[in-house]
Specification:
Length: 253
């Protein structure tokens, strides 16, 4: 993930997500996957603020969590990671094989980390490097948007979210603009002071690699994975491109 394609301070990033609600929703899916596949060690790529890594620490004996942004790793270490079986490393796909030793039963890459790589070439390389870090019979789980143009158009504007910190209120908004090669995501933050006045305004844009279903499946198979399973956001049913806003892709090595 190139630094220029994602600029978001961890202090603000963590406010835009209801982490307790999200993790409670996702926990049963990962518990089932980890138990079924007898997963003992996990590599979480693009761990961000570390919430998933901390959750995984209760499900597997060993968790390695990496992120290319040092401020994310520092935030995770200081605020989120409480378990001794989690190792944090400042690394990304670009230096994965150099900085992360060993092989893993499961690799996760969640929250649109994969499409944030920006180009199809970068995604292909990331899939190949992910497979290299898996043991034989291991699995990789990717989570990303449904990039079908009709679905992006339908969900161009996310409902605004609001959070308070340090006496200020923050309004978070997201906007998506579909493109055949790249889909632009605009992250807008409005800061409101104690008197109710707008005190700051942030607009951060990122280019996602537009990973439509057929493109991703072809990339995954060409990277050497034996089987690919696409599931709904909660993992309860098969992914439906006309119905689901995002998906889990489970890749079998």
């Amino acid at each position: 993930m190139k630094e220029s394609n994602f600029e978001y301070s961890p202090e603000l990033y963590v406010l835009q997500v209801n982490w307790q609600q999200r993790l409670e929703k996702e926990k049963p899916f990962f518990e089932g996957i980890i138990a079924t596949n007898n997963v003992k060690n996990i590599l979480d790529i693009g761990c961000g603020t570390g919430h998933h890594a901390q959750m995984f620490s209760d499900m597997a004996p060993s968790v390695t969590a990496i992120d290319p942004y040092k401020d994310m790793i520092d935030f995770a270490a200081a605020n989120i990671i409480k378990s001794g079986n989690v190792t944090l490393i400042n690394s990304g796909f670009e230096d994965l094989t150099e900085k992360v030793a060993g092989s893993f039963d499961m690799v996760t890459c969640l929250g649109n980390t994969l499409p944030l790589l920006g180009t199809r070439r970068a995604v292909k390389l990331a899939l190949k490097d992910t497979r290299k870090k898996l043991v034989k019979g291991g699995i990789a789980i990717f989570q990303f948007l449904n990039f079908e143009p009709e679905m992006i158009e339908k969900n161009r504007y996310y409902q605004p979210k609001s959070a308070k910190k340090g006496g200020k209120q923050y309004i978070f908004m997201k906007h998506f603009e579909y493109g055949k090669i790249n889909t632009r995501a605009d992250f807008i933050i409005i800061e409101i002071d104690r008197e109710g006045n707008i005190s700051n305004f942030y607009n951060r844009s990122s280019l996602f690699c537009t990973l439509r279903k057929e493109i991703f499946l072809k990339m995954a198979i060409n990277s050497g994975f034996k089987k690919v399973e696409l599931l709904s956001p909660g993992g309860e049913e098969e992914f439906d491109r006309k119905k689901h806003i995002s998906l889990y892709a489970i890749l079998y090595n």
